[in-house]
Design a protein that fits this description.
Length: about 80
């Protein structure tokens, strides 16, 4: 990292409102611009508006069917 990179503070967009925010230790809410935006984002995760994409969770019946299929594949007739 060069001296120029450390001398110029980084500006990022607040993930909630997209307002430009200075990324520094003086901002306790970074990467958010304020406590309000941080809490709004937390609330969105809590009510599952925000999700990380992935495989849907298996319920017990799906798991039983998967195990039964695996047993059949292991024991050919």
């Amino acid at each position: 990292m060069s001296t120029q990179d450390t001398a110029r503070p980084l500006n990022v967009a607040c993930p909630q409102c997209r307002k430009k925010v200075l990324w520094s230790e003086d901002n306790p809410y970074r990467p958010f611009c304020s406590k309000r935006c941080r809490l709004l984002d937390l609330g969105a995760w809590a009510d599952e508006s925000h999700r990380i994409a992935g495989e849907p969770a298996m319920d017990e019946t799906d798991l039983d069917a998967l195990l039964a299929r695996a047993d059949r594949d292991d024991n050919p007739s």
